[in-house]
Each structure stands twice: as C-alpha cells, then as structure tokens.
C-alpha cells in the first residue's frame, strides 16, 4: 500500500516553512508548524496492520514522532489548526500546496502504472496465451486471469 509517510510530511513542512518541527522550542511559529504537520499527518497518513486492516495513523504515533504526547496532537487538531489556517496566510498556503502536491503525486503514479501496463504488451500476451490454450474454456479462464491481474496491480500500485 502506497501512502505518504510522516517523514515525507515533515520534510515538506520543514522545507516549505523553513524550520525544524522536532525541536523543543515553544515559539509561536514553531508551534504552528507542528500543528500543520499534525493535521497533515492525521489527514493523509494510513497504517496497514498485520491483519490487513488499513486505518488512519494514531495520535500517539504522530506525537511520538515529534516528541509530544497524544493530548498535544489532539489540541493541535481540535483547537490550534483552525486558528492557524484562518489567520496565518503562509500556513494556509502551505496546507493548500500540500494538497496539490498529493494530487500531482497521485496522477504521476497513475501515469507510471499505465506505462507499465501498456495495451500493446497486454495484447501480445493475450495472443500468446491464446495459442497456448488447449481449448476455448481454458482461453476464457486465461483472459479472466489477465483482467484480474491488471485490476489488482492498479489497486496495489495506486494505493
């Protein structure tokens, strides 16, 4: 499953807003950067458990990543993020640009997948399978397998 990681969000926020969110500073702009990081992480990060269940990242994990506890992350999410996004234009621009970055990243992944699964290659493969099949039933089964493999590959690579 492809998702965005906490490290990637941290790099983006640090690069865009010029600072380090992991520091111990309690200056307003650093706290605001942490709030933006927390909101972006909670909205965009997913965790895949060994059972196969996919869920949003937990407050504790985000807090541990930036050396804060889960209550601080809840405060960022519930109280501070709205204020920051409403009254600080630079932080709002960072948030909006990150959403644009995610869309572009997703489109790039889809293009890459489509190049990997080009129609010509699939058609060549189908013809080869047709000649290898002993009867019509086996040929239909092989076509089903090809379609199934294509959908599974797209889902795995896009997510």
Question: Describe it for me?
Answer:
With 159 residues, the protein is mainly alpha-helical. It has two domains: 6-105, Orthogonal Bundle (Chromosomal Replication Initiator Protein Dnaa, Chain: A), CATH 1.10.1750.10; 117-159. It contains seven helices and two strands, in the order ααββααααα. The chain has helices at residues 6-17, 28-44, 59-65, 70-87, 89-116, 119-132, 136-158; strands at residues 46-48, 54-56. A hairpin with a 5-residue loop joins strand 1 and strand 2 (54-56). It is elongated, with a radius of gyration of 22 Å. It starts with 5 loop residues before the first helix and ends with a helix.
List keywords for this structure.
159 residues; mainly alpha; Chromosomal Replication Initiator Protein Dnaa, Chain: A; 2 domains; two-stranded antiparallel ribbon; 7 helices; 75% helix; elongated
């Amino acid at each position: 499953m492809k998702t965005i990681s906490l490290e990637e969000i941290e790099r983006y926020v640090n690069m865009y807003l010029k600072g380090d969110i992991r520091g111990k500073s309690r200056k307003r702009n650093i706290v605001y950067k942490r709030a933006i990081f927390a909101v972006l992480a909670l909205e965009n990060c997913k965790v895949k458990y060994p059972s196969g269940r996919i869920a949003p990242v937990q407050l504790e994990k985000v807090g541990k990543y930036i050396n804060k506890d889960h209550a601080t992350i809840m405060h960022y999410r519930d109280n501070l993020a709205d204020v920051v996004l409403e009254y600080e234009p630079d932080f709002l621009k960072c948030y909006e640009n990150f959403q644009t970055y995610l869309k572009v990243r997703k489109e790039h992944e889809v293009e890459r997948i489509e190049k990997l699964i080009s129609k010509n290659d699939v058609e060549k493969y189908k013809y080869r399978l047709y000649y290898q099949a002993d009867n019509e039933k086996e040929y239909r089964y092989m076509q089903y397998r090809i379609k199934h493999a294509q959908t599974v590959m797209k889902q795995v690579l896009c997510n």
